[in-house]
Amino acid sequence: MNRDQASSKIKELTALIHHHDFRYYVLDDPEISDQAYDLLMRELEELEKKYPDLRLSDSPTQRVGGKVSGDFRKSSHRVPMLSLANALSEDEFTAFDERVRRFLDRAPDAAIEYFAELKFDGLSINLTYENGTLTRGATRGDGETGEDVTANIRTIRSIPLKLNTKHPPKIIEIRGEVLLPIEDFHKLNAEQAKKGLKLFANPRNAAAGSLRQLDPAITASRPLTGFFYGMGFFEGIQIKTMSEYEERLEDWGFPVGKNRSICQTAQDVLKFYRKIETQRDHLPFEIDGIVVKLNQLREIDQAGYVSRSPRGMIAFKYPPRQETTTVEDIVVQVGRTGALTPVAQVSPVRLGGAVVRRATLHNQDEIDRKDIRIGDRVLIQRAGDVIPEVVKSIADVRTGKEKKFKIPDHCPVCHTRVEQKEDEAVARCPNRNCRAQLSERIRHFVSLDALNVEGLGEKIVDLLVEHKLVAEYADVFKVTQDQLLKLEGFADKSSQKLVDNIKGARKPELARLLYGLGIRHVGERTAKSLANHFGSLETINEASIEELEQVNEIGPEVAGSVHQWFSDKECRHELKNLMKFVVPQAPARRMGGSGAGKFSGKTFVLTGTLPTLSRSDATRLIEEQGGRVSGSVSKKTDFVVAGAEAGSKLDKATELGVKVIDEKELLELLK
Ligand code: IVH
Fold it and tell me: pLDDT, tens digit, for every residue of 425-439?
């Protein structure tokens, strides 16, 4: 290869890797395997090594650069990073609305346009792009000056090193929040525990700790991501509304919160606030409220500023999720994999909208490290939908009557001797038929995120197990109305309803079924990856460890665990019985799958501002018809739906000969 050829190959590979980073890290919808990606990366690295001067400024090989020496340098923001006033109740939000109306001279019943979205609980950062290239990433600091963490920011794969547009603004400061997804936070803490290192208190701290590493290689090893929503200084673009701005950010390649809504009244905002609150525990990342902003930038200016906060925006918070309480007792729970977990029974306290009576202590090592005793005052907190945990004891208020605790050496339920591997902090009951394990397995199997059998709550599962009506997954589907009627609390109607609901759960999505099987290390996300990759239970069943490891985000440990489950005699037997009752539904994403609807198998890309439909509405309409909305145009795209000020995606579509339609034509097709 001569120099010219190398130069064009480097350009091609750089662009290709950026494209795949975007598919993987922003859209969560990769097009190639990790191996294929690694090969591209290696090819680029080798070429760059041979021709160092041909390396592009946004080369993906430079995401992990050299170490920073000493502390971080200071970095002043071109425009200060302001803060937000809080509304801590619906009344306070209403007061905000009234205030805004006064400042805008708007009657109480006149229309007003708000933009509402999630308040991400991460670390706020400021990114500077000059002529489309990322030149600086800084923490918020005191709002005027932060720390220069550019080298670390570059390692975050969902953050574009270059804006995806042919006409970038000359300079723009883009603001957002860096965070660590809850699942990754728990994984990170598990690893920390294994290495005997200190655990992070919550995902936010873990994100902060990860971003403020002097060695970018450590930051790179943590699956940080982010959401972007704000602007500081900008020159060379014209934007009128917040919603339009976020669509632009999306076009440029940034991850932007999907839950966002343009609200025409304060009532609409309240509806959004309440709706998100019900979803809060199921989001993959932490939020601490919603942010409500006047949608028109002109109106934000008009409303003005008080003490460093725009009057036209507010952080509308949910109740906090940390509280102090007293440990009344410590009991031991047996989980679905046999893990013995010490749980603190605490004096009831309200936490994030629910009353909490129990909080996990994780394992004996954690009890010892935090020195938690029965009778202690403790700080507890909740992250995501996992049960609350004890963060620390407040040792200065001890009376001397507190008692230390030691986990028993026999299972408290079936009395089998517990086992503990040398390299694990967790003690386990090895008896798969232990009643406690079985109850937990079935509870998990029918839970909201698995088979979602409505009406089959934890108490009823326990009853079914206790009465030996259910001894394995398949038995759930054999439960009859007569059997239920003999149990406490069932009447004609309720028993019929439950039997109907169970019947209704016979066609679970493959990912939900996989998750429901309770395989160790297979959380929802892993289950989805497996389902998308293999498409059927049979192929997963036959997959070798090597094949399992080819799946995105699946490493040797998870692959080993999946393989072991499918090789285990008892598990295979249970699965075989279960398959007489359930028909898993292949993921709709896979072509030729069950995706019914007009747009089945069709891929759409949205660009620019559509005259009436918001981006999320258009996406929903397309998906309802079995179509898929992708963020980038390729030869495989079937339609590009273009609105006003459509950017580079439109050019790309024209270049590739992809069909371009407008909103009217889309609605026509939907009819
Ligand atoms: S807009 C004037 N939108 O919350 C500041 N902020 O409590 C404009 N935050 O400093 C911020 N999610 O770090 C905005 N969707 C969102 C947000 C958000 C989280 C953070 C941000 C801000 C803090 C204010």
Answer: 889 999 988 999 999
